[in-house]
Here is the input.
Amino acid sequence: MYVLSYIYIKDNRNLKIVVLKFGGTSVADVPQIKKIALKIKEEVELGNKVIVVVSAMSGVTNNLIDLVKHTSDFPPYSEYDNVLSTGEQVTSALLAIALERLNLRTRSWLGWQIPIVTDNTYGKSVIEKIETDNISTSLEHNEVAVVSGFQGVSSENKITTLGRGGSDTTAVAMAAAFSADRCDIYTDVDGVYTTDPRIVKRAKKLDIITYEEMLELASQGAKVLQARSVALAMKYGVNLRVLSSFENLPGTSIIKEGNNMEKSEISGIAHSLNEAKITISGVPDKPGQAAEIFGSLAQFSINVDMIVQSSSINQKATDITFTIPETDLLTAEKTIKKIQKKIGFNKFTSETNVVKISVVGSAMRNQSGMANIMFKTLAKNQINIHVISTSEIKISVLISSDYYELAMRSLHSAFGLDI
Ligand code: ASP
Ligand code: MG
Here is the structure.
């Protein structure tokens, strides 16, 4: 008994589980898939138990969406998810084949086979639980578990998907469920950058970033990780890294904020192009109007982001300006038109050539003057601010899309982030 439990503990200590996630560009074609198979083999040879999560080949999910759109304007949500999930089915099986060719034990897993159980909100399902028995048995048999990212199964026994970029969330959720030693997200950049290096040449790679900062950057438009995956990693303390699948570099570690981490500069600048601004003018200045407007948008799950309301001079009418994802604009316009009579506002206008720029950094908590630097820098460059919003560690401004690259470059420099 004693010996057995001793051996068990010892085994367990050596038995590191690692989750490796490969994004669309890392599985873009068969040569790439063969290449990452070699990387996975190295990890197995180190003695680790390996769970791999894969995305669809780059571009495939977009093509699948087009196929559905050409079939119907109003596809049943669950069938839409069923089509979209197929991209990951192909890559997980191809990768398992490539691993088998390298004499590794392996098998591929679809979401429902594990199962990864989600709620029934098709298209953006939330993971409710992950059954660990099947994969645990597979790992005990020294198999590499190759999991199709982005998908799960609902209580109605239908396939669900986790929203665009959802394979990151699958990977982090698997790492949490299996108490993995680490969760490595392999992608086409070598880590998290201070801002988009395609726009700001002087952007630099960060060695570390806190969960909170990463969550804000991802929520504000940085595409390197799905925001939900970061929130999940923060909740379960998952040891998360972003690194390149093409180069052997250390990447960026996402870590807990420590006491000794007071930095003087901000960590990053994000931009989001998927923004639309709506202004409703002449809204009668009385209680309940904002509730009416935003309540009607919430019915269609439209996420309202930045909001400003002007104070009325004569206490008769106000203007309300807010932003929503550009992709929801048509629905929002229809909804607002419907409530015009009931509320009795004058008119509404919408604009899509706007971009949201956000500066993010935990340092903001303890330092004043960050907003001042931001506004002064924009003013110096003659960039007009439409809307402002803030959180504890973030300041966002909405500006005309004509100036967003200039804004990003000048802010990057003003906050001392240039290499
Ligand atoms: N294939 C899905 C997408 O393109 C999920 C992912 O890649 O993470 O959004
Ligand atoms: Mg992604």
Observations:
- The pocket of aspartic acid (ligand 1) is lined by residues 24, 55-56, 61, 87, 149-150, 164-168 (CB under 6 Å).
